[in-house]
Amino acid sequence: MFAPLLLLLARPSYGTQHVYQWRDAVTNKQLTCQRCPPGTFVLQHCTENNQTWCEHCPDLHYTQYWNYLEKCRYCNVICGEKQVEVQQCNATHNRVCQCQDGYYSEMEFCNRHSKCPPGFGVEKLGTPFENTQCGACPRGFFSSSSSSTEPCQPHQDCEQQGKVVNVEGNRYHDTLCTSCGPMGTDHRIPGDDDCEQAMIDFVAYQNIPIRKLKRLQQILEHTPRMQAEGTRAAMQEKFHALLTRLKDGSPVTKELLRALRTARLYSIEEQARERFLLR
Ligand SMILES: *[C@@H]1O[C@H](CO)[C@@H](O)[C@H](O)[C@H]1NC(C)=O
Ligand SMILES: *[C@@H]1O[C@H](CO)[C@@H](O)[C@H](O)[C@H]1NC(C)=O
């Protein structure tokens, strides 16, 4: 849209860029006229006796440069869906639009900033011009949510809290600590809430295949079939949430051990029993 104006501006100027050559239609003489300043246009070209007559641009029209246009340009930029006006149309500038918060422009469209999936964190926040940049969480960090703003978080330090590691953290979830005493101490009281939570945490984040996780969920919820799909990390989160929900109703320990056996997850059942002294 600036092409015609740029062409005019690109013509050789004589001495100063604020003048232009013009042939008077009446006398056929070549004249050097003054250009009009930004915000105005040429109402009348100069004559032998008169300077160029410049006028202000009407509403919704502009000229950005020293010019000899006979009409101002129309502010032809219209802000579309998902855009906001960041520069109003005035006598010297066209309207300027930009993608609204949470969107970036790509091929003339405003697309929503991507979310980084679990296991990935935001390395660079999206801008109106650039999408979010995600990176896999490095060792010692995790991200359990799908987010366009959250970076990876460091795993918590159980020792610092005077607790022990119950479940090692990975890219998808935090380290889970417990004060349900370490192995070999007699701090553990079966049925104790801390220990019950610790057992839930322990079981939920074992390397249980998705198929078996679904089976467990089915057994514990007494539902015919789990339709939820997703990655194992997502399934583990769901399973963990389910167990925590069940626990809030009534003690879930026994039921969980029974479910593990029904799902033929004998070694996990055994580990849970040993670890939490549920003999
Ligand atoms: C010279 O320009 C003025 C306005 O700048 C205008 O009023 C006048 O009519 C013009 N004179 C001639 C001879 O064109
Ligand atoms: C027109 O808008 C531009 C860009 O926002 C600004 O720099 C300029 O001062 C404005 N001019 C007037 C007359 O308001």
From TrEMBL:
Keywords: Apoptosis, Disulfide bond, Glycoprotein, Repeat, Secreted, Signal
Keyword Secreted: yes
GO cellular component: extracellular region
TNFR-Cys repeats: 56-97
UniProt xrefs under Gene3D superfamilies: Tumor Necrosis Factor Receptor, subunit A, domain 2
UniProt key word NADP: no
A GO BP annotation: apoptotic process
Protein name: Uncharacterized protein
Species of origin: Melopsittacus undulatus
Lineage, broadest ranks: Eukaryota, Metazoa, Chordata, Craniata, Vertebrata
